Fold this protein.
Amino acid sequence: MAEAQTTQSHSESTRFYWMVAAVLTAITVVEVAVTLIPGIPHLLLVAILLILAVIKGAGVVMFFMHLRGDARVYQLLFIAPLTLASSMIIVFLAIFSNYVGIGG
Amino acid sequence: MSEHATATHAAPATHAAHDSGHGTSLGVDSRKMGVWTFIGSETLFFAALIVTYLIYKPRNLAAGGQDPKEFLGIAVTSVLAAILLASSLTMVLALAAIRRHDTRQFRIWLLATAGLGLCFLSGQAYEFTKLISEGVTFGSSMFGTTFFVLTGFHGTHVAIGVTWLLSVFTKVWRYPDAPGNDMDVELGGLYWHFVDLVWVAIFTLIYLLPDSI
């Protein structure tokens, strides 16, 4: 009985991983397809691509790296640097947005 | 179902921490904590490389440098993205297999992961060769420099990941009953998924996004 339940649990988790992979693949296809739409507004394109990338990344981290449901300290060790890195990218792009002094 | 799936995979790791003598005062495995810390530092490392590319892109164009749009196609890199995504799936399936002591499935999925990693490296070598033949080199422009540094470092990480996974494969092959085998696979898997995660960012920010974000 217990063995049967364990087998079912394993098969469910395996099926779940396949489902996650299928969703992530679909998102990748949508990402590429969106860039091929002629005349799509620039800002809309950027927003769509960034949102899809965030969803994809979150899927990998939560379900493949098992960060969802894992110990809080692991979540902190990843999310803190990720927040810092994202902020760094945004701040640096803002600082240098109208500056052509380096490398130019 | 997802709650169930993640919960059943997270719990054994904590117990293994104490069983294998790698526990910490936080009740977590010190090796896994080390790998997460390493991944956190790698996140900052790749963010620095990505922002450098993005900052120099318009400056490179303003100076009459090579235009990335003329050289970077998304056909090959879309396939590379799919390959890395597939390798993340095979990696997590390998971990699930070793946790239920199914060594046959474990070997198949882990070798598939390493194989897909090698396919990715082959695709990247093809892309680099094509770019170089078109005149984009490390020193040809700021685009060339920042692009090759970023993607080259990522490729190096993939190569290290393949080596890591093959060493884990060999260890489990030689010592199938050794305690902590599943943790070894999990740690290699964490690194591998991170490499995939970096490519998600590179694929979007470097290849798909239009100019002047």
Residues 1-15 of chain B have pLDDT under 50 and may be disordered. The domain at 28-208 of chain B is CATH 1.20.120.80 (Four Helix Bundle (Hemerythrin (Met), subunit A)). The helical segments of chain B are 2-19, 30-62, 68-71, 74-99, 103-133, 142-174, 181-208. Chain B touches chain A through 66 residues (CB under 8 Å).
